[in-house]
Each structure stands twice: as C-alpha cells, then as structure tokens.
C-alpha cells in the first residue's frame, strides 16, 4: 500500500517499485544512479558477473514530473506516464534507484566505492530545471570529490552555448551529446515533432560543434544507437564526421 504524499518521509534511497509516493525526490537534492553504481556504493546488495565492477558513477537528474521529451525508444519517455510513476521506470533496460545527493557524497568521501570509480557522469533530462540543477550537482561534486573527473551527458534542447562554458568552468572536463539517431529522418521519426517531442537534429549538431570549440579534441563526443533503421554507411559517416571534428563516439545496440 502506497503512502500518501502528505505522509511521505524524505528518503535517503529509493528502489523502483517501492510504491511509495515521493514528492520531495527531485534534483538537485536527489539523483538517480545506475544499478551497477548502487551496488558499488553498497546501497543495494549484489555482485557483478565474474567479480567485475563499474568504473563510472552514472547519475541521472530526476523530477517527479519526469522527462518532458517523448523519444519513442526511451524508458523515460513522456508517453509512458500512464503505465508507471517516473521513479519506477527503467532507463536503458535496468532500474535506476534514487539517492539523496548528501548520502551519495558521504559514501564517496568514506571510500564507499573502494576506489573503483574513475569518473562520474551526470546525465541531463528534458526538464525546465535540469540545466540549473546539473550545475548545482556538479559544483557539489567538485567540492566533495575533485579527484574524480566529471563528464556531462547533455540535453541540447534546453541549452545555450554559455551553459557549456559554465559547466566547463565548474569542473566538467568531457561533454557528450546523446545524438542517438544518425540521420535527420530517423531523428525526426523517433525524437522530433513527429512524435510530439521537442528535440531537433540541427540543435543537437549545434551543441556538438559548441562542445568541439569549448572542450577541445578528445574532450567531447556523441552517443549513437545502431539498429534504428540506418545503414552501416550512414552510421559510419556520422562516426567519421565526429572523429574529424576531434571527438569520440559511443556506440550502443538498439534493444526494443
């Protein structure tokens, strides 16, 4: 039985499908983190296959209203609101528990990761507060754990060039863009106005160009998804374009 909003006590940690109303779980006081990161920090029990571990602490900005985009392939998409509360949805096929930022930073300071984290990445979502709150989380991280470098997985739709500059000045050393789709037609069909989503192919490429200018060679890049209808030549042409700009590519296989 779910607690009503007025009875909900602020939580340090929330696992998907607890079925507890959590109106206060919003960034910058809370973030979601990958299941692998939660295991590494001792927030949930578990071990990695063959004693492996994650070397990157992946964080996700979070709000009860959820992401305002509607990408057809994404577990956080707006059209999924009727099926599950935002905090209970999964992202890239695994659960992303929610943790209070204070709790996470305390565990990092206490070496809760046993020195395994070599990088932290903040993933933004499409929300009016995400730009500002990402900077707040980044600033707090740099104050608490400046020895662990930070990447930003950005949301170009709500960002201007100055936002990229501000993030770099606050300590982010790598800036990436989740382009995902590698042709204008696929982008529009899966992420654009066709599916009532606010993203634009041109805006995303503009952000990549800004990142190349501001962050420099090998300090920016793009996430690309293979298997959404593109040809091998089309995805390799995008990889080469980004490489020629001085950036790097992160390629993912599409799993519906």
Automatic annotation (TrEMBL):
Cofactor: [4Fe-4S] cluster
CDD domains referenced in this protein's UniProt entry, alphabetically: Radical_SAM (cd01335)
Keyword set, alphabetical order: Iron, Iron-sulfur, Metal-binding, S-adenosyl-L-methionine
Pfam families tied to this protein: Radical_SAM
Protein name: Radical SAM protein
Species this protein is from: Acidithiobacillus caldus
Superkingdom of this protein's organism: Bacteria
Single Gene Ontology MF annotation: catalytic activity
Stored InterPro entries: Aldolase_TIM, Elp3/MiaA/NifB-like_rSAM, rSAM, rSAM_sf
Record-annotated Radical SAM core domain positions: 51-256
């Amino acid at each position: 039985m779910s607690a009503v909003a007025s009875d909900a006590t602020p939580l340090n940690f929330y696992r998907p499908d607890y079925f507890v109303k959590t109106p206060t779980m919003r960034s910058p006081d809370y973030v979601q983190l990958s299941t692998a990161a939660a295991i590494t920090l001792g927030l949930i029990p578990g071990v990695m296959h063959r004693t492996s571990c994650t070397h990157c602490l992946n964080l996700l900005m979070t709000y009860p209203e959820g992401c305002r985009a509607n990408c057809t392939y994404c577990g956080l998409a707006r059209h999924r609101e009727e099926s599950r509360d935002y905090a209970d949805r999964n992202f890239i096929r695994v659960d992303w528990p929610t943790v209070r930022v204070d709790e996470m930073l305390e565990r990092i300071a206490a070496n809760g990761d046993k020195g395994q984290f070599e990088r932290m990445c903040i993933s933004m979502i499409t929300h009016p507060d995400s730009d500002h709150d990402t900077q707040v989380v980044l600033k707090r991280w740099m104050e608490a754990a400046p020895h662990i470098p930070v990447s930003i997985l950005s949301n170009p739709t709500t960002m201007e060039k100055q936002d990229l500059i501000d993030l770099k000045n606050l300590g982010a050393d790598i800036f990436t863009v989740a382009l995902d789709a590698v042709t204008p037609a696929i982008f529009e069909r899966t992420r654009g106005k066709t599916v009532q989503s606010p993203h634009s192919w041109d805006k995303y490429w503009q952000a990549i160009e800004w990142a190349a200018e501001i962050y420099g060679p090998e300090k920016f890049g793009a996430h690309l998804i293979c298997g959404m209808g593109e040809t091998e030549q089309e995805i390799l042409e995008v990889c080469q374009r980004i490489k020629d700009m001085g950036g790097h590519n992160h390629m993912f296989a599409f799993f519906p």
